[in-house]
Design a protein that fits this description.
Helices cover 35% and strands 15% of the residues. It is an alpha/beta fold. The protein folds into two domains: 134 residues, Alpha-Beta Complex (Aspartate Aminotransferase, domain 1); 247 residues, Type I PLP-dependent aspartate aminotransferase-like (Major domain) (Aspartate Aminotransferase, domain 2, 3-Layer(aba) Sandwich). The strands form five sheets. A seven-stranded mixed sheet has the order 2-10-9-6-5-3-4, sandwiched between helices. The longest helix has 19 residues. The protein is globular.
Length: 405
C-alpha cells in the first residue's frame, strides 16, 4: 500500500530526491583509475595539471590546489597577511569556514548584513563596519550569484583593504564578462561533492599576485621548500650543504599539510571538462523553477542581478510567512513526506554556539536573521531529470498551497 503524505493523499514522488548530489561519469572514473595505476598518488603531476586547467578556465595567473575549501580560505587569509588583532568583514549567511578562517589567524570576524533581495553581502553594510583595524573583506557568492564586486572593490581600494572572494558556490560564474577567480585579490573554490565540480574533497586558491602565490605554495606544504633562492644561506645551509642536493629542503615558515592528492586532482580536472555542461543544466533548472514559483502565493524568490551570469549552486525558496498558517519546519517536514528532501543554507554563523560563546549576539544582522527563518534549499543538480524537476515543483506547490491562509 502506498504511503501517504503528511497531510493526506499519495506522495508526489515515489522515491526520494535530495537537495544536491555529485554527477560522476565513466570519464571521471577512468581519470581516477589512471592515477591509481600510476607512480604518484600524491605530490605528482595531476596536481599541476589541475592548477594549469583552473588558470586557463578563469584567466588568473596562478592557482594553488589544496585539500579542501576550508584549507583554501585559511591559506588565502595567510597569504593576505591577516594577523592577530586584525578585523575582517564577512557575511553571516555562509558556511562557518568563511569566518573560521579569520579566527585561525587570530583575527576578528566582523559580520556585515546582507541585501534582503539578493541575499549577498551589502556593500553599504561593509563600509559601515570598517574601522582602523580592518584588514580585508571576505565576500561569499551566495548560491553562486556573484556579489556586487565592482562596488566592493571600490570600497576596498578606498580603505586599502584586500578582497578575498569565497567562490565555493560560484565556479563558472561570470561577473560583467570576467570569470570569478580573476577578479578579487584572492579567490577560493571548493570541490566538495555537492559543489558544481567535485574531487570528493579539495579546494583551490586563484590569484594574479606572485607574492601571494609563493606564500600559498609554502603554506600548503608545512612551510617547506627546496627552492634555494628562498633559503637563508647563513642559517639553512650552515650544516655544510649548499642546497644543490636533490634531497635537500628547508622549512622557512610555519605551514600546514594542506596538499591535495593526485586522485582528487584528477577527478576535479575531469569534472572541469564538464563545467559548461553543468552550468547550462543548472541554469535550465533554475529558469524552470523561477517560472514555476514567480508570483506563487507564499513563496518569495531571490533577486538575480543582471551583472552575474550565474552558475547556480543551490536554489532557495523564501517562505512568505505572513501568508502561511505554519512556520518553516512544517513546510520542510511536509516536503520530506513527499520524498523531497531539502536543506537550509545557512544558520547565520554568529548564531552558532562557538560564536555565541565568543560574545557574538543575535541581532547583529537583521536582514540575514529574517532570511534564515524563512529559507529552504530545494533540489538542484545537473543529473536531475525533467521529471525530477517537475516533481519537485508539484510537491512544493502542493505543500505551500495546503498551508496558505
Amino acid at each position: 500500500m502506498e504511503r501517504l503524505a503528511i497531510h493526506g493523499g499519495p506522495r508526489v514522488r515515489r522515491t526520494p530526491i535530495y537537495y544536491g548530489h555529485q554527477c560522476i561519469d565513466d570519464e571521471d572514473i577512468a581519470a581516477v583509475i589512471q592515477v591509481l595505476k600510476s607512480d604518484y598518488l600524491t605530490c605528482g603531476p595531476a596536481v599541476a595539471r589541475l592548477e594549469k586547467k583552473l588558470c586557463k578556465i578563469v584567466g588568473a595567473k596562478y592557482a594553488v590546489a589544496v585539500s579542501n575549501g576550508t584549507a583554501a580560505l585559511h591559506a588565502a587569509c595567510y597569504a593576505a597577511g591577516i594577523k592577530s588583532g586584525d578585523e575582517v568583514i564577512t557575511t553571516p549567511m555562509t558556511f562557518a569556514a568563511s569566518a573560521n578562517c579569520i579566527l585561525y589567524m587570530g583575527a576578528i570576524p566582523v559580520f556585515a548584513d546582507i541585501n534582503s533581495e539578493t541575499y549577498n553581502i551589502d556593500p553599504e553594510s561593509i563600509e559601515e563596519h570598517i574601522t582602523e583595524r580592518t584588514k580585508a573583506v571576505i565576500v561569499v557568492d551566495y548560491t553562486g550569484q556573484a556579489t556586487e564586486l565592482d562596488e566592493i572593490r571600490l570600497i576596498c581600494k578606498k580603505y586599502h583593504l584586500l578582497l578575498i572572494e569565497d567562490g565555493a558556490h560560484s565556479i563558472g560564474t561570470v561577473y560583467k564578462g570576467m570569470q570569478v577567480g580573476n577578479i578579487a585579490d584572492l579567490t577560493t573554490f571548493s570541490f566538495h561533492p555537492v559543489k558544481t565540480v567535485t574531487g570528493g574533497e579539495g579546494g583551490a586558491i586563484l590569484t594574479n599576485d606572485e607574492n601571494f602565490y609563493q606564500r600559498l605554495k609554502l603554506f600548503r606544504t608545512h612551510g617547506i621548500t627546496r627552492n634555494i633562492k628562498l633559503i637563508n644561506s647563513k642559517i639553512g645551509c650552515e650544516d655544510g650543504h649548499d642546497g644543490s642536493e636533490d634531497w635537500y629542503y628547508q622549512q622557512i615558515s610555519l605551514g600546514y599539510n594542506y596538499r591535495i592528492t593526485d586522485i582528487q586532482a584528477a577527478l576535479v580536472t575531469s569534472q572541469l571538462n564538464k563545467l559548461e555542461q553543468f552550468k547550462l543544466r543548472r541554469q535550465k533548472i533554475t529558469v524552470k523553477y523561477n517560472k514555476a514559483f514567480a508570483d506563487f502565493p507564499g513563496i518569495i524568490l531571490q533577486k538575480e542581478i543582471p551583472e552575474s551570469d550565474t552558475t547556480r549552486h543551490i536554489y532557495l525558496i523564501q517562505l512568505d510567512l505572513d501568508k502561511l498558517i505554519v512556520g518553516r519546519k512544517d513546510i520542510f517536514d511536509a516536503l520530506k513526506a513527499e520524498n523531497v528532501y531539502c536543506n537550509v543554507h545557512y544558520i547565520p554563523v554568529y548564531y552558532l554556539q562557538y560564536y555565541q560563546e565568543l560574545g557574538y549576539k543575535k541581532g547583529l544582522c537583521p536582514n540575514a536573521e529574517n532570511l534564515y527563518e524563512r529559507i529552504i534549499t530545494i533540489p538542484l543538480y545537473p543529473a536531475m531529470s525533467d521529471e525530477d524537476v517537475d516533481g519537485v515543483i508539484v510537491a512544493i506547490k502542493k505543500v505551500v498551497q495546503f498551508y496558505l491562509k
